[in-house]
Design brief:
Oligomer: single chain
Radius of gyration: 30 Å
Order of helices and strands: HHHHHHHEEHEHEHHEHHEHHHHHHH
Number of strands: 6
Number of helices: 20
Strand order of the largest sheet: 1-2
Strand content: under 5%
Structural class: mainly alpha
Helix content: 55-70%
Largest sheet: 2 strands, antiparallel
Length: 459
């Protein structure tokens, strides 16, 4: 018998039971459901809505049920539809009619709104921890490579000299923004909806603030209709995760390119690579490729959530049951990607020699060559043309700019002198860019300090 079946004259079709059931996925919220029910029962007893002795009995039984579930002694039933009705059914089977008093002044609508908020708050804390772990790995790697010169790219073409530390610290900036977004979402998720009822609250003299206090919520929802129909926090988290995964996907793409024979900038540890079933020479970056692939999956979860919510009238609708599978999937995939990617990145070997060789062959000091002429008094556009002409000459003669003699340089522009070689030395080109946020070593060390300070403040 369904707990809600009083007004029905026939049993629900078995196919509807299966279609309607959500216990297969919302069962993971058992801890949040029981914790919320304990707080609700405690409040009911304190307010005299049910007897204190009944409240105590309910709390004791719920605590026992939680322990049994975690010990694998209690299973859930599909017939009870969802985690909320499963817990109530188990409770009633153990303590009889007293268990039926738990749902006083409460609806499944505000109960599920509470559970999903509590569950997401718990998961956001774990996601934030994983983001910090990746940030720490980036900081550690950057400290080793403040003098490792490489080419920065635009359009996937070698552009200007930077260091490997400066390059990867760009991803640290992205991750710090991701962390801040998660904090914002966490703040908006931490609003307690219980007491909203089905949509119009309750006639019982409940104390919502007391429930919020017991559960650690800083505030309660201010409109009962919004309290049960709001899923903005779910959509917001899915957006945060999509952005985070996009950043990790971009990073993965770099790693996939860098570990190829054509680049050879890094080598992945054997423990985070895979082979081929037919080609014995292969060492594949499957971890990075899976992160890149799973990003699309997290995007799909986000779009499912936005599409599900876009046409729903107030207040609760059964469509909203679909929020859980999508957000759970997004969370699960983001967490595993963060965990494995961090270990892959931390253990990879950076080929500083290959980075330097590629930088030297890419004419990435051509802008510095032009800047040299500007500092000698030449207008930048004229200097730009001179530098471009010399690059073309180098290509035709299989030389680098550093290999040109002063006489070859003066054939194009008489301003050149011996000091040009110091101006276009790659390390000097990097360290001359001392602008805040630039690739000069002193700037990069400050960027590392920013990351380390962020880690310290949020540990």
């Amino acid at each position: 018998m369904k707990l809600w079946q009083g007004r029905f004259k026939k049993d629900v079709d078995s196919r509807v039971n299966d279609f309607n059931s959500s216990i297969s996925f919302d069962g993971r919220m058992y801890r949040q459901d029981i914790t919320g029910s304990i707080a609700h029962a405690t409040m009911l007893g304190e307010c005299g809505i049910i007897e204190k002795s009944e409240s105590d009995k309910i709390v004791a039984a719920l605590t026992e049920i939680l322990s049994d579930i975690e010990d694998g002694k209690q299973e859930f039933s599909v017939d009870a539809e969802d985690i909320h009705m499963n817990i109530e059914t188990i409770l009633t089977s153990r303590i009889g009619d007293t268990g039926k008093r738990l749902h006083t002044a409460r609806s499944r609508n505000d109960q599920v709104a509470l559970d999903i908020r509590m569950y997401l708050l718990d998961e956001i804390k774990v996601i934030k921890k994983r983001v910090l772990e990746l940030l720490a790995a980036i900081s550690d790697k950057a400290k080793l490579h403040t003098d490792t010169v490489m080419a920065g790219y635009t359009h996937l073409q070698r552009a200007q000299p930077v260091t490997f530390a400066h390059y990867i610290l760009a991803y640290a900036q992205m991750l710090m923004r991701d962390y801040d977004r998660l904090c914002d979402t966490e703040r908006r998720t931490a609003v307690m909806p219980l007491g909203s009822g089905a949509l119009a609250s309750t006639t019982y003299p409940i104390n919502r603030e007391r429930v919020a206090e017991l559960l650690g919520f800083p505030k309660v929802t201010e409109n009962s209709i919004d309290g049960v129909s709001d899923r903005d926090f779910v959509l917001e988290l899915s957006s945060d995760l999509s952005l985070l995964m996009m950043h990790m996907s971009r990073f993965s793409e770099e790693i996939i390119l860098w570990c190829s024979s054509e680049f050879g900038f890094i080598e992945l540890d054997d423990a985070f690579s895979t082979g081929s079933s037919i080609m014995p020479q292969k060492k594949n970056p499957d971890v990075a490729e899976l992160v890149r692939g799973k990003t699309g999956r997290v995007y799909g979860d986000m779009m499912a959530l936005y599409s599900m919510m876009k046409s729903l009238p107030l207040a609760y609708n059964k469509d909203m049951q679909e929020d859980k599978e999508a957000i759970f999937d997004a969370i699960d995939n983001t967490l595993i990607c963060l965990e494995v990617f961090t270990s892959m990145f931390a253990t990879m070997t950076v080929r500083a020699d290959r980075l330097r060789r590629a930088a030297a062959q890419g004419f990435i000091n051509a802008t510095d060559l032009a800047d040299y002429l500007v500092k000698k008094g030449m207008p930048f556009r004229d200097a730009y043309k001179v530098s471009g002409t010399l690059v073309a000459y180098c290509i035709d003669n299989s030389k680098t700019l550093e290999e040109l003699s002063v006489s070859e340089l003066r054939d194009v522009c008489e301003i050149f002198d011996e000091d040009v070689y110091e101006a276009i030395d790659l390390m000097n080109c990097v360290n001359g860019r001392k602008v805040r946020g630039g690739p000069a070593k002193e700037s990069v060390l400050y960027q590392i300090e920013i990351v380390d300070r962020f880690l310290e403040e949020n540990k």
